[in-house]
Amino acid sequence: MKTFHYLLHFLCYLTFILQATGTLVDPGRCSKSFGFCRRQCLKEEKQIDICFSPSKICCAERFTEDS
Questions:
Q1: Helix (H) or strand (E) holding 28
Q2: Is the CB of residue 42 less than 8 Å from the CB of residue 59?
Q3: Higher pLDDT, 57 or 63
Q4: What helix, strand, coil percent values describe the chain, rounded to 5?
Q5: Which of 60, 65, 63, 57 is nearest to 24 (CA)?
Q6: What is the pLDDT at residue 65?
Q7: In 1, 5, 6, 53, which residue has its Cα 20 to 30 A from 64's Cα atom?
Q8: Rounded to two decimals, what is the model's pTM?
Q9: Which residues contact 49 (CB under 8 A, 6 or more apart)?
Q10: Which helix (H) or strand (E) segment is 6 a member of?
């Protein structure tokens, strides 16, 4: 019964929470989308995805409009 309970929590995590925070990408795919896998994004960057590497996120440069 405990195994079923843990499995249910894991499936809920995969279904709802993980999709809301971003998708898991490999470092090559992150760099193809003009990003870098880092532990923290710089102030002028934004988080676009989550890298496979432990505790790393894919950061990309923010594009601002000059007006």
A1: helix 27-32
A2: yes
A3: 57
A4: 40, 25, 35
A5: 57
A6: 57
A7: 53
A8: 0.56
A9: 22, 23, 24, 25, 30, 33, 35, 57, 58
A10: helix 2-12
